[in-house]
From TrEMBL:
It comes from Protea cynaroides. This is Reverse transcriptase Ty1/copia-type domain-containing protein. Residues 1-53 form the Reverse transcriptase Ty1/copia-type domain. InterPro entries: DNA/RNA_pol_sf, RVT_2.
Length: 293
């Protein structure tokens, strides 16, 4: 069955966010190159030394970092500018989310991490999302979580991304509203949010009739077992009732959980610093690349 979709005219919004759309023979390339250039210029980083990874490996930030306080207005303006860039650049989502936690009392340590993000952007100015021409309209999701990532309140993060074809078209990385007791529980909460988003996409946003279940890939086998098998109930009594929505969705065959190895878990790029090899691979799988001509 052939599906047709109309591209929404975002009008003035595309102007303010600097979104550029280029139609070429192989597909559509969407970027924010000029916006990124102007941002580097505004924050006096146009001549910074480029770097090929987003965040330093092993970094752990908290609200009580050593160092002098940074100008609050300056730092907030910078982080907000970076957040606009995540509209088209999901590869920077982890770094931007990390520094966003410290907007109320930034120190030179936080500023150093933010500066590194700008150096990465300098090296990838001409990157964007490339959507190849395709007849593959199957909705596929990847879900992951970083347990107790926040050193200040020990809350985990919910990270997921959805694909239709070869490039990501919607993604999320946000702190969970509760403190979870294990990696399995943190991933279970994340998968529930991912399920809700998948059903909303299927029924409301895309208005498409997909007979088969939407595949969602996770890298935690315990989470898959907990979602599928009610026998695990005794181990999950403390988890809020709303998070068990998963089991109903699986029973209705709306959603299907599948295992993905860590090296193929695309959402992993949203939750921790990665070495260049792993970062490069997941960035490519997201569909973030240079323009193809």
């Amino acid at each position: 069955m052939t599906q047709e979709f109309e591209m929404i005219d975002i009008g003035l919004m595309s102007y303010y966010l600097g979104i550029e759309v280029k139609q070429i023979e192989k597909g559509i390339f969407i970027s924010q190159e000029e916006y990124a250039r102007e941002m580097l210029k505004k924050f006096k980083m146009s001549d910074c030394k480029p770097i090929n990874t987003l965040v330093e490996i092993g970094i752990k930030l908290s609200k009580n970092e050593d160092g002098e306080m940074v100008d609050l207005t300056f730092f907030k303006s910078l982080v907000r500018s970076l957040r606009y860039l995540t509209c088209i650049r999901p590869d920077i989502l982890y770094g931007v989310g990390l520094v966003s936690h410290y907007m109320e009392a930034p120190t030179t340590t936080h500023w150093k991490t933010t500066k590194r993000i700008l150096r990465y952007i300098k090296s990838t100015l001409n990157f964007g999302l490339f959507y190849l021409s395709s007849n593959d309209f199957k909705l596929v999701g990847y879900s992951d979580s970083d347990w107790a990532r926040d050193l200040d309140d020990k809350k985990s993060t919910t990270d997921f991304v959805f694909f239709m074809g070869d490039a990501a078209f919607t993604w999320t990385s946000k702190k969970q509203p509760i403190v979870t007791l294990s990696t399995c529980e943190a991933e279970y909460v994340t998968v529930t949010s991912c399920f809700c988003h998948a059903i909303w996409l299927r029924l409301e946003k895309l208005k498409m009739l997909q007979q088969e279940a939407t595949d969602i890939f996770v890298d935690n086998k315990s989470t898959i077992a907990l979602a599928k098998n009610p026998v695990f109930h005794d181990r999950s009594k403390h988890i809020g009732t709303k998070y068990h929505f998963i089991r109903e969705s699986i029973a209705k065959e709306e959603i299907q959980l599948k295992h993905a190895g860590t090296q193929d878990q695309v959402a992993d790029i949203f939750m921790k610093p990665l070495k260049f090899g792993a970062f490069y691979k997941l960035r490519f799988l997201l569909g973030v690349t240079k323009i193809q001509v």
